[in-house]
C-alpha cells in the first residue's frame, strides 16, 4: 500500500521522511516531517471551569482536558476523597467525570489529576447544584378558524439565580420574532 509504519516511536525517529514512487514512466518524490511530541500534563491552555452548575436530579459532565503527550492517566477527588467508578459516578477514558442524579451532597470542590511518564498536574473546580427547570404550564392544542389570532402559553419554574429564555419553534424550526414580527408576537410576563 505504500505505507510506512513505525512501532514504539522514540526521539531518534524524528526527521524528514521521503517517499519515492517509481515505475517505467518516471519517478516522483513526496516529503513529510515527523515530529515526536512529549510533554508533561499542563492545564495552562485549558484549565477546568472554576464554577460548574448542575441541575438537581440531573446529570453533569466535568471536563478534564490537559495538554499531555503521551496520553495521561486520570484520577479525580472530591475534597480529600478519591473518586472511583460507581452507580452514579463514572470517569471516562478522556478524563471527564460524569455524575448522574445530582443531589446537594454532590456540591463541592472537584480536582482532576493527570499523570504520564513526563510528569503530573491537576486542576480544580467547584460544583454547585441548581434547581431544575420545569415547564409548569405547557402549550395546549388549539383549533382556530383561519384568519383569527391564536395564543399559546408556556410557563416554567427555574432556579432564581439563573436567567430563563423561552424559545419557540414551528415544526422543528426556531421562530425568529425579529424577522417574523408581523405574524408572531412574543408576550413576556415578568
UniProtKB/TrEMBL annotation:
Signal peptide: none
The keyword Signal belongs to this UniProt entry's keyword annotation: yes
Annotated keywords: Disulfide bond, Glycoprotein, Immunoglobulin domain, Membrane, Repeat, Signal
The Ig-like domain, residue ranges: 41-128
Species for this entry: Mesembrinibis cayennensis
Matches recorded under SMART domains: IG, IGc2
Subcellular location: Membrane
A single cellular component GO annotation: membrane
Gene3D superfamilies xref list: Immunoglobulins
Keyword Cell membrane: no
CDD domains given in the database record: Ig5_Contactin-1
Major site of localization recorded for this protein: membrane
Highest taxon, organism lineage: Eukaryota
Official protein name in the record: CNTN1 protein
Amino acid at each position: 500500500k505504500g505505507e510506512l509504519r513505525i512501532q514504539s516511536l522514540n526521539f531518534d525517529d524524528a526527521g524528514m521522511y521521503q517517499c519515492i514512487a517509481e515505475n517505467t514512466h518516471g519517478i516522483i518524490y513526496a516529503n513529510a516531517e515527523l515530529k515526536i511530541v512529549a510533554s508533561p500534563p499542563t492545564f495552562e491552555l485549558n484549565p477546568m471551569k472554576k464554577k460548574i452548575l448542575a441541575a438537581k436530579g440531573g446529570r453533569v459532565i466535568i471536563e478534564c482536558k490537559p495538554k499531555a503527550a503521551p496520553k495521561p492517566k486520570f484520577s479525580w477527588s472530591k475534597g480529600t476523597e478519591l473518586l472511583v467508578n460507581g452507580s452514579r459516578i463514572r470517569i471516562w477514558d478522556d478524563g471527564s467525570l460524569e455524575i448522574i442524579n445530582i443531589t446537594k451532597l454532590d456540591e463541592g470542590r472537584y480536582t482532576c489529576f493527570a499523570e504520564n511518564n513526563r510528569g503530573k498536574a491537576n486542576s480544580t473546580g467547584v460544583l454547585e447544584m441548581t434547581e431544575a427547570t420545569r415547564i409548569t404550564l405547557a402549550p395546549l392544542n388549539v383549533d382556530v378558524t383561519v384568519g383569527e389570532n391564536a395564543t399559546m402559553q408556556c410557563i416554567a419554574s427555574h432556579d432564581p439565580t439563573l436567567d430563563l429564555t423561552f424559545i419557540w419553534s414551528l415544526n422543528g424550526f426556531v421562530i425568529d420574532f425579529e424577522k417574523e414580527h408581523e405574524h408572531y408576537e412574543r408576550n413576556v410576563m415578568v
